[in-house]
Every structure is written in C-alpha cells, then in structure tokens.
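Technical note accompanying the year-one report. For the benefit of new consortium partners, we illustrate the data format agreed upon in the data management plan: each record pairs a sequence with a structure-token string. No post-processing was applied to the example shown here.
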Amino acid sequence: MNSLSNVWNQPRTSAAGLLIAVVTIAATLSQQGITLGKAGAGTLVTLIGALATALLGLLAKDPATPPPSANATAKLGVLALIALLLPLPFATGCSAATVAQDIVNWTPALESAVATVDSTAALLAPADAPIFTAATLGFDAASNLLAGQAKAYLANPSITTLAKIQSQVVTFQQQVNAALLEAAKIVDPASQKHSLAAVQAVATIVTTMLALVQSVSTRTAVAQMADRSAIKLATVAPYLDLPQAARLLATHYGEPTAAAQTQSRQMETQLMQAGF
C-alpha cells in the first residue's frame, strides 16, 4: 500500500522512474538486435527510447504548483542525467550505414594515432624499438583495410560487406590487444611509457569501432566475433588509459568529458559481457 500511495503522492518522480525503465529496456533491446520494426531511418525500439528520454527531460523542467521541494527537483535532475547517460552516443538509432559512416568519420583520428605509433620507435631504447615495431607492424594495413570496407559498405550495402567489416574490426582489435601486451613487457620505464601511450590511442578508437559494429550485429554474428577474440578486453584493461579514451570520445562526439568517461566504461563493460 505504501508503494501505491507513493506513486499517487509523487507522480512526477514515479513517471520519471517509469520513463527511465523504458529507456533502459529500449537500449537493451537494441543491443540484442530486437528492433520491433522500422521507424523512419531508425527502428521502433530506438524511437521509443528517444521519446522516453525527451519526455523525461520535459518532466524534469515542468513547473509544478506548489513548487516542488529542492530535494524533489534534485532527484528529478539526477534521474534525467542517468537516463541521458544510459545510451552510448552510437547505440541509439544506429543502422549498419550509420556505423559505417562513423567508422569513416573516425578514420582521420585513427590514421593520426597510427602515425604516432609509427614514429614512436625512434623514442625507444635501441633494444626495445625492434620489439615495438614488430608488435605494431600491421596497424597501417589494418587501418586502411577497415576504412576501405566501411566506404565499400556505404557505396554498396550488403550482408557480405558487413561481414567483412565484422571480421576486420575483430582482427584489428586483436592486433592492438597483442601490441598492448607486448608494450607492457618492455622493461625500460621510458620506453614502456612511450609504447603504451602510442598503442592506447589506437586501442581506444578500434575498441569504439568494435562497439559500433557490435551494436548493429545479430546475436549470431556477435558470438562469432567474440569467439575470434582470443585476447579478451579484461586481459588488456590494466593497460588502457581511460582518461585518454574519454578525451578522444568527447572530442569525436562533441560531448562533455564526464559523460564520455561514463560511456567509455559502459562500452567496455558491454563488450566484455558480449564475450570480447
């Protein structure tokens, strides 16, 4: 009875909680590939999630008579913030085409990060440079191939082209994970610092691309991709620079760093839960 009376006595907070539940369920359904049909350029699930988030924002700002207490207002503000942070910037309204375009949009940053990797060997101790070079040797080719496949999908969308992107992004991510482990083995402190910093930037972008591709892949495809991921994210997580990752995400998606930090952690958690 107390729960029912609370719903009646605090309708704004109750409505906010219901809308957050809708947003959460919509995000989960999208991640599992459940769309409930098309809605314009997106899906019905993502449309419902977006509408629920918008209504929550209006509810948090709607004036009440008498004015709500500061405590209630703060509570609604927190609920609205939670709802806004739940979806990743690339997990709402995504299609394979938007993912392919985002991969293309990430390409300049990826090319810059790979160029930094290429020049890092000159900063390392003589004994460490060959190890680092061997570990990162395939980055240029992998980057070019993935960008080319994304452009090919945009030019001619097909299941076959998407499958190539799925395969390549996992291959590249595994190369990066292996390079992180090799960089961590470098004994010289200065060489190790330079090596890890260079590879971490590439790792952030490639992991984001993996999350992008996963968000529009079927359960079967995700399972196949995860099976090919021999070096799991949990293994390389200690060598990832989360503040750097948040800065890259914030810059690319034009969002506050604090939101990007939350999204970066959420992205990593979702990939790990999917088996990567």
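Partners are asked to follow this layout when depositing records. Residues 2-85 form one domain.
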